[in-house]
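Hi all, long-time lurker, first post. I run a small reading group and we've been trying to get comfortable going from sequence to structure in the token notation. Rather than ask abstract questions, I figured I'd post a concrete chain and ask someone more experienced to write out its structure so we can walk through it together at our next meeting. Sequence below, copied exactly:
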Amino acid sequence: MVTRRDFLGSLTAMPLMASALSARSAAPPRTSMGLTSDSFQSIRFSSPHRLLEADRLLLLAVKVGAAGAHGGMTSIDMDWARKTRRLKEELGMYVEIQTFLPRPGEDIGVFDQAVRVAKEAGATSLRVVCLLGRRYEMFETPEAWAEAVAGFHRQIAAAVPVVEKHRMPLGIENHKDWRVDQQVALLKQYSSEYLGVTLDTGNNLAVLDDPMETIEKLAPYTVNVHLKDMAVEEYEGGFLLSEVPLGEGMLDMPRVVQTIRRAKPGVRFSLEMITRDPLEVPCLTDKYWATFGDLNGVYLARMLSLVRAHTPRAPLPRITGLTPEGRLALEMDLVDRSIAYARDHLGLA
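-- Answer (accepted) --
Happy to help. Here is the structure in token form:
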């Protein structure tokens, strides 16, 4: 079995270009789907920046036969950008960059430089989030959520002219913050061809949105995709939510891919197979509802009915108690199963 030390060592022992040649000869592409950095959280969170840079993710992707990297930047440095572009071109892969909206009080030049670096690195699009967390965990009152939303709008309003100037598509992920109709309204408000959505195919289950309705409504605005399948299970506070290998969960994955492709034929799909303990969605608790004044019991009843209709085929993935090597081995297995399904059943060969 591959050990964590051996696997990480293969990514760091050689210069990037030598690593690229070695990786490409070792694993021919198996799918046109790429990887997000969260598909290897054990590597991401063991790094000093808790990010998985796009260049390192390219090497991970090519080792498992994926087609590109949807990863981060630890510095907004042109030297890094040029090295990453050379690596991307040598491997014949795509790059999408995860970055941050302009921070409150920060010179807009910082965001402008991040966009410049991403473009120099060969990125075709960017991904950001408004909320670094989950709405129902972070806010106690409607007023607190409204204040956060006002801040998000200030950040987005600052970002849009920059991405328009650089002609760089920017996707705001549906990140367990906006409900689908709120996010569609936001995108219509700014009405920019360079502002859209990083469409996560599973996240809106956590805010009681129907997953297929979410995908259908957001697909026309899609800039890039976090492709995932989901499994659910009831618990006393609501339901548990887990990413599972593509084709092994509750989502109709062929319909998901077809819906997005029909709306945005050229969009890239990047696997987000997050291997972790199940997330608790405490929709039967008072705190959960603190910021959801627009919801009523109909939404709750529909979601619980959906949960009860989709009993997991297998126990939900868990990492508690695993060694680092065991966690990496589990990540590798779930990613491999997802790639095989994407190739064989989703037209992502």
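A couple of things your group might point at:
The chain has one domain: 4-344.
The mean pLDDT is 93.
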